[in-house]
């Protein structure tokens, strides 16, 4: 742990010496600062983009945001996650306004943010990329998740490499790993879905792996389905179905 901390600090200090002029602050500072690396605790009230600030701020430690726009996620009529490959590619190529190495804690977070570590929101959150563990009560949304996404209501990622776990449901356009929830959906899935309804409400074009649920459906299956009713491109059967 000591060596990891020294490595993070070395990277932060080293990057100040090239590129645009950067400022090193700590142990407590605002993440609304321009071109700043904060060692310790960064604090703020809303995402930087809302203030038309496109400069990069990096937090090495703990980031605290309150109240955050994520508190309004339950009122948003449409998901913020990309619906097409073009939209996803455009977003994922964009330079984040913030990098967080450590813990991101908020009431509800929405922003062009990339998190390495633990991402926690009391209500809901949306960010560009999460590498690690992301949790919220309402919804956890990310363009790309590498790790574990958890919430009470649901999780959504355009690309998820890891696990999505929710009491209600999960959705990914591309998923590599595990989905656990009452309703699970993925257009392209490599891994395991465990739930009540798996791919039953979406156009799931490909699944390679295993489906365990009450109702399972996939247009192009390479694997096994176990449930009350199972449907794939070859046949529909009760209890168990397969295609290889």
Structural topology:
Layout: H1 2-14, E1 23-25, E2 28-30, E3 36-44, E4 57-65, H2 85-93, E5 98-106, E6 109-110, E7 113-121, E8 124-136, E9 139-151, E10 154-166, E11 169-180, E12 183-194, E13 197-198, E14 206-212, E15 215-217, E16 221-231, E17 236-243
Parallel strand pairs: 1-3, 2-3, 3-4, 4-5, 5-7, 6-8, 7-8, 8-9, 9-10, 10-11, 11-12, 12-13, 12-14, 13-15, 14-16, 15-16
Antiparallel strand pairs: 16-17
Structure description:
- The protein is mainly beta and about 240 residues long.
- The protein has 2 helices and 17 strands.
- The chain has 2 domains: about 20-70 and about 95-165, no CATH class; about 190-244, no CATH class.
- A 5-stranded parallel beta barrel has the order 12-13-15-16-14.
- The chain has helices spanning about 1-15, 85-95; strands at about 25, 30, 35-45, 55-65, 100-105, 110, 115-120, 125-135, 140-150, 155-165, 170-180, 185-195, 195-200, 205-210, 215, 220-230, 235-244.
- The model is unreliable at about 15-20 (pLDDT under 50).
- Helix content is about 10%, strand content about 55%.
Quick recap:
With 244 residues, the chain is mainly beta. The protein has 2 helices and 17 strands. The longest helix is centred in the first third of the chain and has 13 residues, at 2-14.
Radius of gyration: 20 Å
Query: What form results from the Cα inertia axes?
Result: elongated
Category by helix and strand content: mainly beta
> What's the end-to-end separation, in Å?
45 Å
What is the number of helices? 2
Structural domain count: 2
Which strand order spans the largest sheet, edge to edge or round the barrel? Answer: 12-13-15-16-14
What are the segments in which pLDDT stays under 50 over at least 5 consecutive residues?
15-19
Strand content: over 45%
